[in-house]
Structure prediction request, 207 residues.
Amino acid sequence: MKEGRKFFKKNLAYDWPLYLLLPLFFSFALSYLFSIAHQPSIYEKINIFVASTSLKSEGFCKDIQNRFKDEGLKEVTTAQCNPSDKVFSEKLQVVGYESSDIFLLPRSALDGIVPGDIMLPFSSDFSSAYVIEKTPIYYVRDNVNFGIEIRPKGQASWLDAYVGFLDEDYFLCLNSTSKNIGKSGLYDNPEYDLALQSFMYLQEDGQ
Prediction:
């Protein structure tokens, strides 16, 4: 028994910091696991890639989230980059292609990519269901519609309050790999359409 006490006291002299750190470690671990468990699922959040000189992201995201919170939208995030930046093409293809549901792009940005690689083609059925404008103008490549014009060059938009637009025509596009565009993309998820609802909202006047 005495030897056991001596062993404990000897080790305590060297290991006492460990006894202080272990509770902190477990506390941080539990907090992390709790935060992960309560994060919105992929079907409860959307990301919008915006090619612009500036973006008031907080207000922009809050506007959309408030509009669709009753439909289950819990988080809206953005990825923004100026098309004149050297990293724009890389950011669009890495960040935008991988994680964005919706794209807000000027004509020059669309001209610089192969839209069929990632953008959802707008069939006549899709346009009838989700394009608001009665006489829409599309971004067309190889006779396929890949985006709907929402801010013609030189014209004002309710989105001006948030987005620093370039002096170009701007188009709204969808990521064909998004899991929030119902059955329109690669995934047949008819009940998950928050990106589609947001896509329609962004075509409107912000009311």
Notes: The mean pLDDT is 86. The chain is about 40% helix and 15% strand. The longest strand covers residues 144-151. The chain has two domains: 1-39, 42-203.
